[in-house]
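Page 47, continued from p. 46.
Same chain as before, 176 aa.
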Amino acid sequence: MTHRTHRRTLLRAGLAALPLAAAAPAVAQAAERPGRLTAAAVAQWTDAYLEAWRTKDDAAAVQLFTPDAVYEAVPGVPEQTFRGREAIGRYWREITVGQSDITGRHGTPIVTGDRAAVELWVTLRSAALNPDGDHWATLLETNILLFAPDGRCRRNTEYWNLQTGRLTPPQGWGTA
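Result:
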């Protein structure tokens, strides 16, 4: 199978980027460590994000964000910018509905001040993203995250590339 980029198909399917994510425990633990944002706290937040994506748990996903958070699935595209938990949750539910067999991993976060960059490598099945054969798709994504002092995300800006097929990361991927 050849691997082709399908950004236009992804946008047409209303799936401009894939989810956010996950759990109150990660936010609570981050909130227990006030002060300087650390790579470990960002990694924990990202683990919760990926778990919410894997389980399609929109309630867990929105708890990772501040009430007034901004989620930019495609920067500069107003229709792909979601403001507040309600909008983020609605977006998240819509884009995950046709996904299955979701697995994800993240690289070592890079942190400066209250901002972080983290790479994601996600594989999933989705007929909307890959209508051919077994429907595998791989999302290669970098998220630029801005955190509030309580450990919740205030802004998530995604930069991503979608490939058809189930790809594995190259040696050394995700190391800072």
